[in-house]
Protein: UDP-N-acetylglucosamine 2-epimerase (Non-hydrolyzing)
Organism: Arthrobacter parietis
Amino acid sequence: MRILSVVGARPQFVKLAPIATALQGKAEHLIAHTGQHYDELMSDVFFQDLGIPAPDFNLAVGSGPHGRQTGTMLAGLEEVLEQARPDWVLVYGDTNSTLAAAVAAVKMHIPVAHLEAGLRSFNRRMPEEHNRVLTDHAADLLLAPTEVAMAHLATEGLADRSVLVGDVMTDVLYLTRDAVNAKQEPLPAGLVTGGYYVSTIHRPDNTDAAGRLAAIVSQLSELDKPVLLLAHPRLRTLAGEHGISLDHGSLRSIAPLAYPQLINAVQNSAGVVTDSGGLQKEAFLLRVPCTTVRPETEWVETVELGWNTLISADLSQLGAAVSRPAPAATDANPYGSGEAAHQVVAALLNGSASS
Ligand code: UD1
């Protein structure tokens, strides 16, 4: 069986890593990189650090408005699929690369499997929400990370195409955490365990309007501990355009970290402040309190278990939320035990959700 993974943006490389490993010796696996993310720190370091084979195809699409970016990928992927003729196209998460690959494949009658199916924010302002809903309804096999995701798929009439596999980011997180701890990876200079927060902010709703971004940055700069701000290129560019400093008060901005260094920085921090989906879950898995600067989350289990607090409209609550005491310890594992990639491979080899 030949499986073609299509990836393009940073969180997809993390999800690809355990899949590439689990597919070894089980099926022929080809990788297409759309080039949505192209900076070394947003792309290449993930392939190196996580031992992912080099892509077989690279479309080098780059940045652009949603329609043009997605359309350019769609055209390029049609040619890739023509050449590769896979038995499955495996698409990951909710980016423009995910949607482009799903549309390209479904139009060519090539079966599509969607990894991380069924997540919903119910916020139709988010490009990710359009991407994941449209992809789920185009796909033939829906690989859901959680029971909640399975329930969303059932509500939308997609139960017979859905299978619960667990969360592959959990697989890679546990492996990376153990490797980092065995190596005793150092922290970024000047930081001590429990003495700082880690922050990432990159969503358009938080970065694109100058007033909103300035208010978030101002709150972060007033937190009671140093804030290691891992600046996504979008944040860096927009802060520059709006004349907002990312290095004042408690704030200390640096370039995005490679994955092992990110895990190390988070597990040693006093808390995380983010609008990323993946980082909320990583904080929970490492049992670090998270404050999410969004009105809602797809990873509702992190909130229900007390490890994640949402702050959006009233940013003046951010400081109190971030410095809240850690919740009671829990051994709940709503994201699985770190073996989701094997479940994914089994479902692909079975050929359908119901078999
Ligand atoms: C994308 C995903 C988002 C995911 C995020 C992870 C969509 C709609 N969004 O958002 O779900 O959480 O990736 O990081 O697909 N840029 C660079 N270098 C790069 C990549 C981007 O400079 O390697 C800059 C460009 O100015 C670009 C901007 O970042 O315009 C945004 O990049 P883009 O891929 O459009 O979306 P993200 O915000 O990264």
Notes: DSSP finds 15 helices and 13 strands in the chain. The chain has a mean pLDDT of 96.
